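Students often ask why we bother encoding 3D structure as a string. The short answer is that it lets us treat folding as translation between two languages. Here is a chain of 228 residues written in the first language.
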Amino acid sequence: MTQPSATLEDFYAGDYSDLLDEAKVNIDARMAYAKTGAYALGRKVDEQITTLLDGTSQSTITFAVTSYAAIQSSLLQMVEALDSNDVPNDGGRYGALTPRAFAQAMTVESFASADYVGANGLPFTEGAPGHRKFKEWMGVKWCMHSGLPGKGTSTAKVFTWHKSSIGYATGKHAGNVASNDSVSADITWQGTKAAHFINHMMSGGGVLIDDAGVIEGNLNDTTAIATS
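And here it is in the second language, the structure alphabet:
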């Protein structure tokens, strides 16, 4: 058995915060730039992982969205494909849908209604699924993600997978002001520009560990939200 390995790539995100501009606003401009840079690198990690998901060789499922029944069938097929591949149903299954696909899924009563969710998993107590929010249905933790391949086009892609099927490695950096985590933040004074430079950097890379644990669905993401 070949041991999977990930190749780390270096990424940077930085911008200048003009000192005189900082004096004219009532917000912490440097902190705003710091958050923006961290979010930018977070999106880069998402992009790397979705690229790996898109590399699965499993048979692609046609994710039909023409009616409530078709949408429910599509969701069930995404789950069924995991079952057919003997992917463990142990709480480690995840699903990602485009914004339009998630809206389509919300037309399915069993997916959207609290009547179908147990007392320990009510979907509406944590806000809309998005940033760090998941909706559990059929043993899969579903989220909406706006960075999936083809989002908003006729060739969009959605995925279900087991977290153990994908690996992601990061390098930690000495002297990191961000608690020595994978994303390093650095703020320095640039006298020639009379500004602070807020820089972020990271090394990271992913690997597809088990192809059978990733299921891809293709859909027309321009289809109007079903009404029946």
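Translate back mentally: The two ends are 49 Å apart (CA to CA). Keep this in mind for the problem set.
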